[in-house]
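hey so u asked for the seq, here:
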Amino acid sequence: MAEPAGFRARKLGEALRRRAGESGSLKHGYHWLMGRKHGYHWLMGRFRKTRDTGVKPENLIWIFGSGRSGSTWLRSMMEDLDRHELWEEPMIGRLFGEFHNQAPKSDLRRPDFVMADATRKRWIGAIRNFVLDCAGYARPRLGADDYLVIKEPNGSMGAPLLMEALPESRMILLIRDPRDIVASQLDGARQGGWMYRRKENAEWKRRALPDNDPESFVRGRSKRYLHHAGNAKKAYDAHRGPKALIKYEELRADALGTMKRMYSALGVPVDEGELARAVRKHSWENIPEKKKGEGKFYRKATPGGWREDLTPEQASIIEEVTAPLLEELYPEKPG
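ran it, structure tokens below
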């Protein structure tokens, strides 16, 4: 594995220092360079610019959308394919997306702000370098022809920035009916559910909204869905690289056919026999029964199950909040 850029820069600096001791002119030049305000960082930067991370931007495959949309199932099937590696929720989209989305407009107009409108071209380039560098360090064994699948549903608020920074990368927009998503979250967040057990926030558990005020919980989760899936859809619409829009409902009805269509749209060749084996391996039927059911991570995988899970008032809240996406992606009237 290649030495880190900083380490190599220090080695070169030491070599220059030793040579400087042998020559008066070199000694003068060395101390001039190292004494400059940015001399040492310039030296390191020269190596960073030439370091090969082994990650090709066109070989990045992003999964955006929202939580509880089937992204774990999708990435599991993809990870099992030859020349596919997984980067599990690095939250890069959250890092940049939340900060930029929450910045006051006055800051965006201020030239000294780190993500100012006036310097957008430069910091978009910095995001590109950051992603590629971090991917290279996270997956140092990634081959030149390997694909890196990045599961990032909870970082989808940053999808527009990431796709702008990496326009040649491949994008999957994974969508699921928000009524089923919120119904699943409501079940998992109740006391004893998998989300409740995983949460470390004592205040969140004390308030216990899913049990004490489920309508408020439903409204909050609906807004989160609109924020995440809405930004993912915005990125998908603007993206000019290879992309595929996949609905969870289609994946459940015909996983193999949907996966074939997805890979065709992405322009990624896959072996159909290998793909069929991955689909069978990760099918709902092959999940042990003890891991499935109410309050568990694998709940029931039934599209339209929200009709049994939600009250009419809760379904109405979700439909009202998520209307911009629901009307476009699920135009049929609720039954």
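The longest helix spans residues 214-238. The CA atoms of residues 117 and 153 lie 26 Å apart.
lmk if thats what u needed
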